[in-house]
Amino acid sequence: MRASLLTLLVSLALSLVLAEAILRLFFPVGFREPPRPPARDVWMELLHRRSALPGLSYELAPGMEKRSHGTVVRTNSHGMREREILLEKSGSVVRIAALGDSYTFGFGVAARQTWPRILERLLDQGGSGRRFEVLNFGVGGYSTHDEAVVLRYRALAWRPDIVVIGYVLNDPEDEPIQPLHSYYQDTRWWQRFEVLRLVAKADWQWRVRRYGDGDYIRSLYGDPRKWKNVVDAFASIRQVTRAAGIQVVVVIFPLTTVDEWAQYRYADIHQKVARTAAAAGFEVLDLLPVFARHPPSDVRLADSDAHPNELGHRLAAEATAARLLASTSRSSRASGPTAP
Fold it and tell me: Which residue from 164, 172, 100, 106 is spatially nearest to 138, judged by alpha carbons?
């Protein structure tokens, strides 16, 4: 009996070794493959660095400049895609922290064309009689969890009066599938084996089929563990903003991957995000009706790139400015005239 068991274990071990060799030589598995050290100057090495913040893999490096994807990207001394701004805030300034991923960072557009920068100009011109500062804390690849960490450990130090979260539909993701997360996350032991990465890929594909009927975006909202990432992040944001009396607005961006809006399949997901954000006490602005006034191709960078182009950023900024100015007006009326 013992000899049979030993024979079985040896056979299993040899089979795994053989399978690993075949995959490694002829059918390498790219899924969750450990990133190779860059052989040359790459944008993620220049513009980003490992983060010291708890729970955050990477961040923008301060004082960087590089031409990337057709535009110049500069970061200030605080590691933001921003001009230099003093940490101390003037008492007359309304300061807004814009949190988000590459949609907020402004992938593929100039800094002056990003929705946070346009938002600042529109608010200053809005006739409220107040001056605004909109700080762009957006970083490509960030999830809602990452944005909650940035708010708690970095953005709060800037004493924002308002937090605007640029929400994109892949924000529940917590696996290092996106290039930046993969590049900066520590490699786990099992990722060094082709066989185990193949198993992990099969598991990922099974979860996409089970929870999203083959649709990756839908799987993020059908998988309870993935969706919990957003719920927990909203709870964290609520905790730190409520204590400081900070207004929170969640701006939901649609995906412009369709040829026409009649093909768009995620309106119900927008509603789910909106309900959850409202339950956390946040204001919600859904940009789907705003973007839907234009063909999807008019608001994306390219047919192969769904990031918003200059028009997409301007539409997002205009809708957000209108919401914030209306909110500011309501607050002013509610507070009544200032006593002499």
Answer: 100
Lowest mean pLDDT among 63-77, 243-257, 302-316: 63-77
CA distances from 81 to 59, 73, 140, 192, 311 (A): 11, 7, 11, 35, 20
Q: Which of 118, 121, 122, 117 is nearest to 137 (CA)?
A: 117
The whole-angstrom separation of Cα 39 and Cα 227 is 37
- At 162-203, the pLDDT tens digits run 999 999 999 999 888 877 888 888 888 888 888 888 988 999
Choose which CATH entry (3.40.50.1110, 3.40.50.2300, 2.40.50.140, 3.40.630.30) describes domain 75-179+201-335: 3.40.50.1110
Environment class of 280 (CB within 10 Å of its CB; exposed 0-12, middle 13-18, buried 19+) = buried
Average pLDDT score over residue span 293-305: 95
3-class SS of residue 175: coil
- Model confidence, pTM: 0.91
Q: Which amino acid is at 199?
A: V
Closest CA to 105 of 154, 161, 47, 50: 47
Which two tokens mark 314?
Answer: 């301007």
Percent of the chain with pLDDT strictly greater than 90: 64
DSSP 8-state code for residue 70: T
Residue type, 180: L
Mean pLDDT of the chain: 89
Give Cβ neighbours of residue 313 (< 8 Å, ≥ 6 apart). 106, 109, 113, 114, 115, 118
Spell out where the chain has E strands: 48-50, 58-60, 65-68, 71-74, 93-99, 131-136, 162-167, 247-252, 283-286, 300-302, 305-308
Would you tell me how many other CB atoms lie within 10 Å of the CB of residue 295?
14
Segment 264-268 long-range contacts (CB within 8 Å, at least 24 positions apart): 264/288, 264/292, 265/215, 265/218, 266/169, 266/217, 266/218
Provide the pLDDT confidence category of residue 41 given band limits of 50, 70 and 90. low
Q: Which residues on neighbouring strands pair with residue 49, listed in sequence order?
A: 59
